[in-house]
Specification:
The structure is a single chain. Helix 2 packs antiparallel against helix 3, helix 5 packs across helix 6 and helix 7 packs across helix 12. Helices cover 62% and strands 0% of the residues.
C-alpha cells in the first residue's frame, strides 16, 4: 500500500502545482474573522458584525458560548456578548474551526460518508483537546480546539482527487491511502492558509507516537495525539489499542495518565462529552 499511497501523493502534489486540483480555501466568514482578530484596533463589535452576516455561524457561536463548559451567570443572547465573554481571539478560532464543516461535502456516497466520518471524528478530538488543554497545560484551549478540528484536513484534497479522477473507488484502499498521506497534505493546506507553525505541525506529528521533542512541555500536536487516542478507548480491536501507551511520551508531557479506564475520572469524561457536543451542529 505504501507504493499506491506514494503514487497518489505525487499525483496530488503535481495536480496542485498545476492548479488542476485546488486546495480547499477557508470560507469567507472565517477569513474575515481572522482578519479582524489580527487587527489590533478591532473591537468586539467589528467581529460581531462579520459573524452576524452568517446566520448559521451566529447560532453555532451562541450555542458554544452557552455550553456547560463556557457559560457564565448570564445567558448569551448575541454574538457580541459571546465575544465579550470569550475574547476576540477565541471566537475567531472557533469561527475558523466550525466554518470548515462547510468543506466536508461531496456528491458520491462513499466520499460523502468518509467526509462526514472525518468531520465527526475531528469534533470529538477537538472537544477532548479543549478539556485536556484546560486541565493539564498552559496552552490556549481555543487553539487546541482548532488544532483538533484541522488535524485531518488533509483528507479533503485526497477525496476530491478520488472523486474527480475516478480513483481509489475501493473503500479499504481509500482509507489506507488517507491514513498514509493525509498528514503531509494537511500540513500543505495549513501552510497555504498561513496558519502558525504550531498548528501546521499538528497533522505532521499527531500520529508519531515515538516522537521526541526535547522538551518536557507539551505542544498542540501532543494534545491532539492524546485526544485522538482517547477517542479509541474501549475499541479493543483498533490498532491504536494494541500500542503500549506507556511508551508514548506525549502523555508524560501533557500530564495525563496513559490507558485511563473509562469512568476513572467521571467529571473529566463528562466535560469531554460536553465539549464534543458543543462543537457538533445537532
Amino acid at each position: 500500500m505504501a507504493n499506491v499511497a506514494d503514487v497518489v501523493l505525487q499525483e496530488i502534489n503535481e495536480l496542485i502545482d498545476k492548479d488542476q486540483l485546488v486546495l480547499p480555501t477557508l470560507p469567507e466568514v472565517a477569513l474575515k474573522a481572522r482578519e479582524v482578530a489580527e487587527d489590533n484596533n478591532a473591537s468586539a463589535a467589528d467581529l460581531a458584525k462579520v459573524i452576524s452576516v452568517d446566520v448559521a455561524m451566529t447560532a453555532r457561536i451562541i450555542k458554544v458560548a452557552n455550553s456547560p463548559l463556557m457559560r457564565g451567570a448570564r445567558e448569551i443572547n448575541d454574538v457580541q456578548m459571546a465575544i465579550a465573554r470569550l475574547g476576540i481571539a477565541c471566537i475567531s478560532n472557533l469561527v475558523t474551526g466550525l466554518a470548515m464543516e462547510q468543506m466536508f461535502q461531496a456528491t458520491s456516497d462513499l466520499i460523502d460518508k468518509t467526509m462526514r466520518k472525518s468531520w465527526h471524528h475531528s469534533t470529538e478530538v477537538a472537544g477532548i483537546a479543549n478539556v485536556i488543554c484546560r486541565h493539564y497545560t498552559k496552552l490556549k484551549p481555543d487553539q487546541a480546539t482548532l488544532a483538533g478540528l484541522v488535524h485531518e484536513i488533509g483528507i479533503l484534497p485526497i477525496l476530491t482527487y478520488a472523486e474527480e479522477y475516478g480513483k481509489l473507488n475501493d473503500p479499504i484502499t481509500l482509507q489506507k491511502v488517507i491514513d498514509a498521506i493525509h498528514p503531509i497534505v494537511g500540513a500543505r493546506i495549513l501552510q497555504s492558509w498561513e496558519f502558525p507553525k504550531e498548528l501546521v505541525d499538528v497533522p505532521l506529528n499527531y500520529l508519531k507516537f515515538d516522537r521526541v521533542t526535547g522538551s518536557d512541555k507539551p505542544d498542540y500536536a501532543d494534545i491532539v495525539m492524546v485526544a485522538n487516542l482517547q477517542t479509541y478507548m474501549g475499541k479493543k480491536d483498533h490498532p491504536f489499542m494494541q500500542i503500549d501507551w506507556n511508551t508514548i511520551s506525549a502523555f508524560q508531557r501533557v500530564g495525563l495518565e496513559p490507558n485511563m479506564e473509562d469512568g476513572a475520572d467521571e467529571d473529566l469524561s463528562a466535560e469531554m462529552d460536553a465539549a464534543m457536543a458543543m462543537l457538533q451542529a445537532n
